TrEMBL record:
<protein>
    <submittedName>
        <fullName>VOC family protein</fullName>
    </submittedName>
</protein>
<dbReference type="InterPro" id="IPR029068">
    <property type="entry name" value="Glyas_Bleomycin-R_OHBP_Dase"/>
</dbReference>
<dbReference type="GO" id="GO:0046872">
    <property type="term" value="F:metal ion binding"/>
</dbReference>
<dbReference type="InterPro" id="IPR004360">
    <property type="entry name" value="Glyas_Fos-R_dOase_dom"/>
</dbReference>
<dbReference type="InterPro" id="IPR051332">
    <property type="entry name" value="Fosfomycin_Res_Enzymes"/>
</dbReference>
<dbReference type="Pfam" id="PF00903">
    <property type="entry name" value="Glyoxalase"/>
</dbReference>
<dbReference type="InterPro" id="IPR037523">
    <property type="entry name" value="VOC_core"/>
</dbReference>
<dbReference type="InterPro" id="IPR037478">
    <property type="entry name" value="YwkD-like_dom"/>
</dbReference>
<feature type="domain" description="VOC">
    <location>
        <begin position="6"/>
        <end position="129"/>
    </location>
</feature>
<keyword id="KW-0479">Metal-binding</keyword>
Amino acid sequence: MLKLRQIHHIAIIASDYEVSKKFYCDVLGFELQSEVYRDARDSWMANLAINGHYQIELFSFPSPPARTSRPEACGLRHLAFSVDDIEASVAFLTTAGVECEPVRVDEHTGKKFTFFSDPDDLPLELYEID
């Protein structure tokens, strides 16, 4: 059996790199660990971290093709983040101009969750943990 240790990172290609970098860093609170321009690809790449742990590679590429992400398209369905207080998190996002779906309760775990989108309409989830 393959012995995976953990998810290393998630790669996201942004249609507007600066807008997405600002969203992930200034709104969601990721820390910009490093950033490099790759001249041969005309592409920026940023490494973003939560609590010091590298999680997201954010890319820019010239004219990336659009990808259908909803409803229920094949592929990555959404990216979920755990939070301690979902109501406070939703209030913060709303104040930052981010629209969230109504908070729901997971019928299997009893935990609260909601969805919202990044600047490219990538579906993101907040999931309350104890």
